[in-house]
Amino acid sequence: MSPTVASATQNFVNSVAAIFSSLVHSVLAVFQAYSRWARRSSAPSSSCAGGCLLGDAGYRRSFALCHG
């Protein structure tokens, strides 16, 4: 392979690798943001979770605190 073809091939491989790396980082960033959002929106507040541990009376009290 001539030096110019090897150089062009290397440049092409490097650019494809850079695009792929950027794409992977973007997908990971979106996934992490979604995970944080899902965890925040589905996790009960501490008083709700504490009510479950305290039994039925505690659950009713914490349910009232959490849900008005």
Layout of helices and strands:
Blueprint (H helix, E strand, L loop, with lengths): L2 H40 L3 H8 L1 H13 L1
Helix pairs in contact: 2-3
Keywords: Membrane, Transmembrane, Transmembrane helix
Describe it.
With 68 residues, this protein is an all-alpha fold. It has one domain. The protein has three helices and no strands. α2 runs antiparallel to α3. The relative contact order is 0.08. The mean pLDDT is 76.
- Uncertain residue ranges: none
Structural class by secondary-structure content? mainly alpha
Domains, number: 1
Major sheet: none
Query: Span from first to last CA?
Result: 75 Å
Radius of gyration (Å):
26 Å
Estimated share of beta-strand residues: under 5%
Helices, by number, come to: 3
Helix % is over 70%
Mean pLDDT: 76
Q: What pattern of helices and strands is seen along the backbone?
A: HHH
> How many runs of DSSP E, i.e. beta strands?
0
Which characteristics define this entry?
transmembrane helix; 68 residues; rod-shaped; 3 helices; 0% strand; transmembrane; membrane; mainly alpha
Q: Briefly, what is this?
A:
Keywords: Membrane, Transmembrane, Transmembrane helix. The chain crosses the membrane at residues 12-31. This protein is an all-alpha fold.
